[in-house]
C-alpha cells in the first residue's frame, strides 16, 4: 500500500478559464462543476470573483449548487477580493503572492516585509470570515529558498491552513520538486499544495514527485487546460495514481471521467488531445498483430488501466496493413456474435492487409469488407 495521501483541487474553472480556447458560458461552468462533483473531486477552484464583470455571479451560482465538493475562490491578498469571495458564498480562499525577485521587481512591486504584512492581514480577514484559507508563493521554483522560508515562517501561526508552492512556469524537474517538497515538509507542520504547469512536459511527473515527497494537495484541470499549454490533466493524473495503487483513487467515480473530458472538449470546440494519457480517444487502441493477439488473450499485456473501470472501449484495429487475424475474429464476433474458424479469419486478414497496403478504410467500410469476406469464405 502506498503512503501517498492526497486531495484534488481542480482548477478548470480558474486556471482552465485562462486557456486560449476557453469561453465557457455560465451554464457550461455549472455543468463542469456538477460533473466534477459527480466524480467526487474534493475542491473546485473558481476565478477571482472580482476578475470579470460576471465572475461574482458565477461564484454565487456554483456555490449555491455544489453540495459535496468544497468551492474555493482564487484571490489576491486584497480586501475587495476577499469581500467578494465572502459575498460569493465560497468555502475557502486561495491567496497568492510571490517573493521571487522578478515578481517583486516587475509584478506587484512589494518587498518581503510588505508581502508578509499584506499576506497576514488578508489571511486574518479570510479566517475571521470562517473561510478555509490557503497562501501560495507564486513561482516557488524560481524563488530564493530563504525568502520562501522567511515568508512561510512568518505566516505559519496565522491560522492559514496550507502553503502552496506552484511551478508557475513549468520549469521544475521531478527531482527539484521532490527536494523542495521534502525540505518544506521537514520545516513546517502545515500541509503543502502544488500546482504544476506543463511547459516542459513534466506536470504529471512533478505532481507525483510532490506526493511521493509528502505533499498533500494537488491542482489539476480537465484535459490540463490553462495558461499557455496548461497544467496537470485531471484524468491523466488520476490514471497515474491508479497505476501505482488503485486504492489511492477508489474514492473517485472513475467511470465518470470520460464524460467530463468529453464535455469540456466539446465546450472548447476541440477533440480530446490524442497524446493525453488515459483520456486520449486512442488510449485503448491496438493495431499491430502481435499486440492485438496478446491483448485479446489477456488485456494487461498491453494495457495498464482497467478498460471497464474507466468505462472506456477497447479498439482493435483489424483494417491496417499490419493487423492480424485475431483482430478479425474479435471484430466479427463483436458485430455478429459468431465465432469464425481460425483459417477463415486468417484468409480474411490476409485479404485485408493486401488491400489496406494501398488504401485506408473507413470504420464502416472495414466492417463491411470483413463481413462480406466472412460470408464468402464460410460458404
Ligand atoms: C496565476 C498563477 C498561478 C497560481 C497558482 C497558485 C501559478 O495564474 O495567478 O495559486 O498556487 O501558476 O502560479 O496559476
Ligand atoms: Cu497556474
From TrEMBL:
One of its GO terms (biological process) is lysine biosynthetic process via aminoadipic acid. InterPro entries: 2-IPM_HCS-like, AIPM/Hcit_synth_CS, Aldolase_TIM, LeuA/HCS_post-cat, PYR_CT. One of its GO terms (molecular function) is homocitrate synthase activity. Keywords: Manganese, Transferase. Residues 6-258 form the Pyruvate carboxyltransferase domain. It holds the Pfam family HCS_D2. Gene3D superfamilies: 1.10.238.260, Aldolase class I. Belongs to the alpha-IPM synthase/homocitrate synthase family. This is Pyruvate carboxyltransferase domain-containing protein. The lineage of its organism: Bacteria, Candidatus Wirthbacteria.
